[in-house]
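User: Show me an example of a complex going from sequences to structure tokens.

Assistant: Sure. Here are the input components:
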Amino acid sequence: QLVESGGGVVQPGRSLRLSCAASGFAFSNYGMHWVRQAPGKGLEWVATISYDGSDQYYADSVKGRFTVSRDNSSPSLYLQIDRLRPDDSAVYYCAKGIYTFGQYYFDFWGQGTLVTVSS
Amino acid sequence: DIQMTQSPSTLSTSVGDRVTITCRASQSIGSWLAWYQQKPGTAPKLLIYRASSLDSGVPSRFSGSGSGTEFTLTISSLQPDDFATYFCQQYSSYPLTFGGGTKLEIK
């Protein structure tokens, strides 16, 4: 199970930290990911962190403002979002990844947490 | 970046129809393609990975094919539970990218 939290209504320029609590699988063995979906739009991959946290990857649209991290002892995944912009408004999903020849597809998703950036 | 283009964007169909959705990649991705189903207000669900491998528990009426730049998702006989939006995703290289989605509507 993956349960996201931390979403809400936030003013532009502010920060937010999303969390994803994991259970029911060996969290420390899997790369984890954030994928977002703006209202009525498609899916956009945001960030990936390797199983041990040593590697992170980001979409260009969020690089420098978003930071993905994890705590394998909790076990939880996090997304720190700084300098929020209106186009960051979306449902943010955490997803468990299956690693195949360097990249991932997503075999399980949380229910998502809604972030709305508005003044 | 690899662009993923799905067609059609919307498809009006009926229960029992055979449905085919196409996903094209802007460059070759081998077989590194996944398909997801999403119903309104819920998270996406994995259907197919590596272009043609069915995820556990997915009904056999779903199938995937293709390699390189052109891929298809086929539903052999549409069931009421299948009216949803379908997305493809390439995992050949970063950034991981999705198609724009295909929404199946009741005719």
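The lines above are the inputs; the final block is the predicted structure for all two components together. Chain A has a mean pLDDT of 96.
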